[in-house]
Amino acid sequence: MSSRTVIRNGLVVTASDEIHADVLIEDGRIAALAASGTPAAEAWTAERSIDATGKYVIPGGVDVHTHMELPFGGTFASDTFETGTRAAAWGGTTTIVDFAVQSVGHTLREGLDAWHAKAEGNCAIDYGFHMIVSDVNEETLKEMDLLVEEGVTSFKQFMAYPGVFYSDDGQILRAMQRSADNGGLIMMHAENGIAIDVLVEQALARGETDPRYHGEVRKALLEAEATHRAIRLAQVAGAPLYVVHVSAMEAVAELARARDEGLNVFGETCPQYLFLSTDNLAEPGFEGAKYVCSTPLRPREHQAKLWQGLRTNDLQVVSTDHCPFCFVGQKELGRGDFSKIPNGLPGVENRMDLLHQAVVDGRISRRRWIEIACATPARMFGMYPKKGTIAPGADADIVVYDPHAEQTVSAETHHMNVDYSAYEGRRITGRVETVLSRGEPVITEREFTGRAGHGVYTPRSTCQYLN
């Protein structure tokens, strides 16, 4: 039995086009587009018809940086794959790529299997995995080849967090050399963790324990230095590089310089760096703990350079780095010692709306919105055109978006499993109305109609920006 849905009278917005068109969906995929009101479109019949008059019809968001159920700092990220993917759907995101973790002394396979077990049967939307490589050795390098073959085509390394995820320059170089051979993409958390640990120790010794000092010790120059070093190591290895959660203007400058040299270097930023700042980290009492994440929030003047990087394509992707910890009982672990505050904040539900607000404010165009939130992340991580666009043959991951609806962001109304919102009280124009995942309604006119287990694991091909 085939099932058909038609979405009528909306403005279809992709990274490349805007067209008033009807969309025909058949068996979970997009079957055809036709200009609204034409005989071709009028002739379509379907069991389900969605009226998108006055609305945008956009591809489902692709968030390639989430951490559901991540163990960190003696606790776990508060969103499970079930609650996190449901919240993602509410925010118009229909695919996430989460991070499976290799623990030191264990194999990549053990880490990947553990994350498959967490996610399988629990996700409301489709999902894939990157692999965090914490222990580079000969066996790990061989396993990287096997993982690329089976659709885990990106590997994250950390220049931060000594004793946990940290890799030294030699380990990074070896992994990059391997990825140059097997087609994988190295994702880098670029901060000089060795130097930061010295500054943390010195700050605590001075009695500087409040959350705002988290931002002061994780200096922008140490992000820029690590970014520069990662770029040059990748150049030596002949490997591409994707730098995650870029927050500092000095790091953007390093990426821009490398790209001007013709290197295959890519950069991601996140909504928190575009909309929040050290002003939040300095909120009175212990409120600043809500905004502790790494890389840290920067002074407000960095925001303009991040937006500029998105317009000039020196930054290509906006992901969330969604890694929520409740204020009560989790963030509070760091009272009296900022270094013990779990690093991360919630955002998987807010990304598409915040970026639409940037369209309303004139910072980016509608098509650039879709490019940085849907199409480019899908291309970067080998999922396009199955994901990230509206075209015949693509998965019917579609959002009907009301560009005129107004909302106020609040923990009282969000669906993430966390007791605060990083954007509490922020007024936004634009809101998700209906969300389809592979043609199935997950959100129907602001009601959750999806289910845990609908989302399926999505193997990926290699980065589609490389020759």
Total number of helices: 14
Strand elements, count: 19
User: Biggest β-sheet: count, sense, barrel?
Assistant: 9 strands, mixed
Shape: globular
Q: Gyration radius, to the nearest Å?
A: 21 Å
The whole-number mean of residue pLDDT values reads 97
**Percent range for helical residues?**
25-40%
What separation lies between the terminal Cα atoms? Answer: 41 Å
Structural class: alpha/beta
Strand content: 15-25%
Q: Tags for this entry?
A:
14 helices, 467 residues, alpha/beta, single chain
SSE layout:
Blueprint: E1 4-13, E2 18-26, E3 29-35, H1 39-42, E4 48-51, E5 56-59, E6 61-66, E7 71-72, E8 75-76, H2 81-90, E9 93-101, H3 108-119, E10 126-132, H4 138-149, E11 154-158, H5 169-182, E12 185-189, H6 193-205, H7 212-217, H8 220-237, E13 241-243, H9 249-260, E14 265-269, H10 271-275, H11 278-281, H12 301-312, E15 317-318, H13 351-360, H14 366-380, E16 398-408, E17 427-437, E18 440-444, E19 447-448
Parallel strand pairs: 1-4, 1-5, 6-9, 9-10, 10-11, 11-12, 12-13, 13-14, 14-15
Antiparallel strand pairs: 1-2, 2-3, 5-16, 7-8, 16-17, 17-18, 18-19
Describe the structure.
This protein has helices spanning 39-42, 81-90, 108-119, 138-149, 169-182, 193-205, 212-217, 220-237, 249-260, 271-275, 278-281, 301-312, 351-360, 366-380; strands spanning 4-13, 18-26, 29-35, 48-51, 56-59, 61-66, 71-72, 75-76, 93-101, 126-132, 154-158, 185-189, 241-243, 265-269, 317-318, 398-408, 427-437, 440-444, 447-448. With 467 residues, the chain is α/β, with parallel strands linked by helices. Strands 1, 2, 3, 4, 5, 16, 17, 18 and 19 form a 9-stranded mixed beta sheet that branches. It has an 8-stranded parallel beta sheet with strand order 6-9-10-11-12-13-14-15. Strands 7-8 form a two-stranded antiparallel sheet. The longest helix is centred in the middle third of the chain and has 18 residues, at 220-237. The mean pLDDT is 97.
